[in-house]
Structure formats: structure tokens, C-alpha cells
Write a structure and sequence with these properties.
137 residues, alpha+beta, 7-stranded mixed beta sheet, 3-stranded antiparallel beta sheet, 2 helices, 10 strands, 28% helix, elongated
């Protein structure tokens, strides 16, 4: 949010100084950053529930995500490289490479508590309040 505010103030200052192009570009960048922030905040995971045949991920302002299939794990593996998604804004959301190889779809708010579940054929990374599971590679 701080970057958004700085861009907004910078855009206003540039417009006031007669630099219409730069001011407009900074103001549009501020609005774009605000949109990304709002979207990531809505998608932020707030609770996880494991049923016998599914994983349910509750999100702050968006419908819950349900992944059907037998749930096994958890395994403690670190999230390594973000392949696609958010890198900390509203959580670590998207596709991440895993320590030890492979990749997972991540719905993580705290990387230090990340665990990986296998749901059907998918690898899903979550960060429960009290992670369990053995150490991974």
C-alpha cells in the first residue's frame, strides 16, 4: 500500500508541476497497484478443511476452493521458486517449485509453516496454524 500511496502522490505532484504524461502514468500505476492489492487480499486463504475426499480452502473475499480426491500427507517441503502467482502480497498464491523437486499449487500465508498435501493427483501447499508432518527434502 505504501508504494501505491507514493505513486499517487508522485502522480499528483507531477500533474501539478505541469508534467501531464508522467503524472498520468504514475496515477495509473497507483490505481493498477491498488487493483492488484485488492485482488490478492480477496484471494487470501483464511482457513483449511480436510474431509475424507476433499480439501476445502476458505478465502477472505472469494468463493472457497474445493479440491476433490483422496487427501494424503502432509509433508514439510519448502516453497522455492514462484512459477506463477503472488509472491507474498495477500499470501503466496499460485504455482511454486518445491524444495526437493516437483511443484505445487500454493495457498500459503506463512512460508515457514508450509506443508504439501497430495489431493488426488495434485500437490497443494497450505500453511495451517499448527503444521504437522515429517521433514521433506
Amino acid at each position: 500500500m505504501g508504494v501505491c500511496a507514493l505513486l499517487w502522490v508522485g502522480g499528483g505532484s507531477a500533474l501539478a508541476a505541469g508534467h501531464a504524461g508522467a503524472g498520468t502514468a504514475l496515477a495509473l500505476a497507483a490505481l493498477g497497484d491498488l487493483g492488484i492489492f485488492v485482488a490478492c487480499r480477496r484471494l487470501q486463504p483464511v482457513a483449511y478443511r480436510i474431509d475424507a475426499d476433499a480439501l476445502l480452502i476458505e478465502r477472505r473475499g472469494a468463493p472457497a476452493r474445493r479440491f476433490a480426491g483422496h487427501v494424503s500427507g502432509p509433508r514439510r517441503l519448502s516453497l522455492r521458486v514462484r512459477l506463477f502467482g503472488s509472491g507474498g502480497l495477500g499470501g503466496y498464491l499460485g504455482v511454486y517449485g518445491l524444495g526437493g523437486g516437483g511443484r505445487a499449487l500454493a495457498f500459503v500465508t506463512d512460508r515457514s509453516r508450509a506443508v504439501v498435501l497430495t489431493v488426488g493427483e495434485r500437490q497443494i501447499a497450505i500453511s495451517p496454524a499448527e503444521p504437522i508432518g515429517g521433514s521433506g527434502a
